[in-house]
Structures are given as C-alpha cells and as structure tokens.
Amino acid sequence: MEEMENIPRLCAEMQLLEYPEEYIIKPSDGGSYQPLSISRSDGSLNLISEVPITSAMEMTVIYGVVGAIKLLAGTYVFVITSRKQVGMHQGFPVFQIMSLKFLSCNKALELSTAEEKRDEAYFVSLLKIVETSSGLYFSYQTDLTLNAQRAHNFEGLRRIPPLWKQADPRFLWNRSLIEELIEAKLEPFILPVIQGTRMWRRGADLEGHVANFIETEQLLEVDGFITSYLQVRGSIPVLWEQIVDLTYKPKLNIINTDETPKVVERHFRDLVQRYGPVLAVDLADRQGNEGPLSLAYADAVQSLKQIRYVSFDFHRICGLAHFERLQLLYEQVAEDLKRQGYFLRNPAGEIIEEQKGIVRVNCIDCLDRTNVTQSFLAQMTFDSQLQQIGMFSTSECMLQHPDFHREFKILWANHGDEVSIQYSGTHALKGDFVRYGRQTVSGLIKDGFSAIARYYLNNFHDGIRQDAIDLVAGHYTVSRGNPSPFHLNGFESLAYLPVASVLIVGGLTVTTLSLRQVVWAGVTAGVMAIIKANGRLFCSRPRLCKLY
Question: How many angstroms separate the CA atoms of 92 and 83, rounded?
C-alpha cells in the first residue's frame, strides 16, 4: 500500500461558515489547505488566505463538496452534511452519503423575469429531489469506480493522479457537478461520488450506450490475496422504448430498426475493448410482449465477432419458483466462464490470473431476473477462486459450508435490493431465492407490495426524478436563451399528479353512492375511456431531455 500514499489528500471534514455575502468552507481535519470562499451573489469559487474576523451567522460541519451547478439565476453548490462508514476497500474507509444540502448563490434572481423565476423555482425543486438521493458512496483515499484489475495498473506509478482523474467516467455520479471545481483547480475539494440510476431510460442511444448499465465486482481480500470477478448488466442494446401509460406492463416498441445493427455493433465494440470477449445472456421472454425485442437483439448480434449470444427464457424455464433450473444455463456457459476466468493477485503483489472477458446479463429492466442469474453465476466462480487460493480443496464447494453460503447469499440479495431501490424505488423481486434459496409466502407478499409500489412510482414520480438526474448529470444545459422546458398544455398540465387514479376511484365511489347511478356510471365510463386513450399524458414524464 505504500504507493497509495502518494494520492493527493482530500479534505475529509470541514466547517461551513455562512456570511451575508459569502459561504466559506474551512478545512478542519489538519493539513495546510486554504479555506474556500463561495460568493452568494454568483457562486464564484476562490481560495482565500484566511477567514474573516467577523463572526459567521451560522456554522455547520460538512464532510465534502459534491459539486456545483449553474442555473438561470446563479450557482448552487452541493455539500455533504452527514455520512456513514459502510465498509473498507483496499484498506481505506468507504462512506455512504446520508444527507446532502445545496447552497443557493442566486442573488441575480431579483433581476429575473417572471418566467425565469418560475423556471428557476422548478429547477430548484429538482435540486431538492437530488438532495434526497439514496445510494451515493465515496472514499477520500481510494477510487471506487475502478475494479481491482484496472486499479492494479495505477499502483506502480511514481505519482498517482487525483481520484477524479483516475475515475471511470461511466460510474462517476457527479462528473458534471465537479467541472466548476476542476476549472478552479480546487484539488483538495474534488470528491468523486458513485451511484447508478435508471428511471425512464430503456435500450440504447445512437452511440451504443445503454440504460441500466452496471458493472458488478465480487471482491475477496483474504490473507493478502485479492481476487475479483466482474459481471455487467445493461438494457437490451437496440433502439426501443417502454413509455408508461397507466397499464401494468406498457408495450415495448422497437424504433429506428435501420440503425439497430450499427448501434448493437458500437455497444459490443466498446465492451470488447474494455473487457475482452463477451458472453451475452438474454433472459427476456421469447414469446409475448418481450419476444420481438429479444428476437431483434438475437438477429443483430449474431454476426459480431468475440460475442456469444445465449437466450435463456427465464420465465418459461424457471417459472415463479424453480430457480434451481439456472443450472441448465450454467451447463451451457461453463466453458465460457472457465475461459474468461477472474482476477487474482497474490500477497507479493504478483498477478496470478487476469479476467479475459465478461458476462453481460439482461432481462427487460435488468433487475430481478438479472439479480438471480448473476448471483448464481458468481457463486460458481467463487468456488473456483476459493479453491485456487487454498481456502477450499479441489473437491470442496460453498454448499458444504452453510454459514458461509448464507452470508454469500445475503450479500448478493442486499446488492440486488440496493440496485433495485436506486432504480425502481423498491426492493428487488425474487429476492427470496437469492437470500434463502427458495420462495417464501412472506416473500411473495413482499413482492406483491413492491410491484404495486413500482407501478405507482413509475407512472407518477419517475418523470420528475429523471429530470433531476438529467439536470445534475449535465444532460440538459440551462441557458437563458433556451425556451422554457416546462410549458404544459391539456392533460400534460396534470401529469405530475396521480390524477388518473383519483378520477377513477372518485368516479367509482360516486357511482356506488349516488341515487343517479346510471348517470354517474356513464360519466365514470367516459372518464376511464379518456384515461385509457390518453394514459401517457396522465403519467409523470421527463421534460428536459428527449429519449432519443
């Protein structure tokens, strides 16, 4: 770990001092760092030599600067007001952000037009959603975006770059937010944060980047050995959409089919360059609503080199409870997994094995079926890893150690829940099998409630949350020269409220209670017909960015 000590040190604890004209962030964890001044007028960032003598109006302890964003009337700076240590990685603490706060530097708002003030208020409401984001993690001393195999490449460098320069931009949640800090050369305050988000996105864009993309690393550090196994998940990499419309399972629509082969080729070319040969496991249904999408994927990928496509119709083969039938999938891919291998470094720092390929798993939303399948494949690989480092004999496996196996399953079940909560707002479905190896009655009930919650959030909340993500991720640029993105008309003005459900329930209630039941039944039927015909307009829709 000697080389890791060369990483430029970040401020880990600071005092936030509030003055009438500025915020001052004063490092309080040692070192010779200069305080940071943030103008409350325009958000300009500058290092200062000393803190003003006058007393601050308020003082708060903070644990990091997440970044800054410019809106119509000024700049807003995010800071970490609460953290929780959740683990260790490479010998260094890993923290979860428990609470965020943004500092408003927008005195120019007084000079804004009425429409600009309305738009700014809506943008600020999106920042408040960001304040409540879950699943944000960081470390002051090690890069959480790099897997062990890639991180090993930095360890031999005489001068290791700052964490934000090491970071894989695909997984850097605040990549856009830290641009202001980078431009101002505020190295001690530039803190990389990771998270994954899904919300409204499905499929691929024209560049081959897919929604729901996650790299999962199963990492074991024991007796000086470090061994790692990578899998990725991501939405089916063709051009398709699934727009919420109040139905439980909205229709999947394949679009722009002429571009599909190019998009699929771009996606897999990037994966091969990063990871090596790809085993693409498609868990989508071969029939029904998902069938045409799965077939389009299979057709587009069949001519690509270094790609092996395997279709495994999870619902048809495993049903609701027979997840042990994943063994049938393993038998199809066992040789591929053996060839790809895993990363292994011995206590002397020597590379014994490198992973030479990747398994890419997908279902439709890349949550429940994907979680179950990835945990199963990871368990098979874990047995090989433990055998090679001498913890297991060549005839031993995890199933022979119930306590160890239980902890392994809990770890993967928690991982599935974490991903699902970030993406859908609920725990993962089918989590019982990962956690206990079987479906339970309580698990079925829990899955039912989670499915209802997902429906509600997806139809009536996710559009606004997608706007919040697009704003802080830099996908939408705020400019005074742009027309307002929030002009609504007709049913769209109702889209951010669960109006449809209110109308239906209200109509049915009145139908039951009114003496003029026939009239009210007709009114209710008419309302329901309108809602069915215009379902998309009653749902929460993103306003800032187009899907394609």
Answer: 15
**b/e 512-528 (16+ beta carbons within 10 angstroms → b):** eeeeeeeebbebbeebe
In the numeric block, the tokens 């600071």 are attached to 14
Query: What's the distance, Cα to Cα, between the start and end of the chain in Å?
Result: 45
218's enclosing H/E stretch is strand 214-222
CA distances from 448 to 102, 441, 476 (A): 37, 11, 36
- The per-residue pLDDT for range 324-369, each reduced to its tens digit, is 999 999 999 999 999 999 999 999 999 999 999 999 999 998 988 9
Q: Please name the residues in contact with 277: beta carbons below 8 A apart, sequence gap of 6 or more.
A: 306, 307, 308, 339, 340, 356, 357, 358
| Look-up of token digits 């979680």 | 371
- 281, 310 in Cβ contact below 8 A? yes
Give alpha helix (H) positions in 152-281: 163-166, 179-183, 260-275
Cβ atoms within 10 Å, residue 131? 14
Average pLDDT, the chain: 86
Half-sphere exposure of 476 (CA within 13 A, CB side): 23
Residue 189 has pLDDT above 90, yes or no: yes
What is the tens place of the pLDDT at every residue in 106-165? 988 888 888 989 999 999 999 999 999 888 999 999 999 999 999 887 776 657 789 999
Q: What is the pLDDT of residues 465-508, one digit of tens each?
A: 889 999 999 999 898 888 888 875 444 444 444 555 555 555 55
**Which residues, other chains included, contact 353 with Cβ-Cβ below 8 Å and sequence gap of 6+?**
227, 341, 342, 343, 344, 388
For 373, the enclosing helix (H) or strand (E) is helix 368-388
- Amino acid at position 410, single letter: I
Quick: pLDDT tens for 234-284. 999 999 987 766 776 778 889 877 889 999 999 999 999 999 999 999 999
What HEC string does 406-468 produce? Answer: HHHHHHHHHHHHHHHHHHHCCCCCCHHHHHHCCCCHHHHHHHHHHHHHHHHHHHHCHHHHHHH
CA–CA gap between residue 498 and residue 459 (Å, rounded): 8
- Residue 100: Cβ within 10 Å count: 21
510 C-beta neighbours (distance < 10 Å), count? 16
Q: CA 114 to CA 75: how far, in whole Å?
A: 19
What percent of the chain is predicted at pLDDT more than 90? Answer: 59
* Amino acid occupying residue 434: V
| Per-residue pLDDT reduced to its tens digit, 418-445 | 888 777 767 677 666 567 666 677 777 7
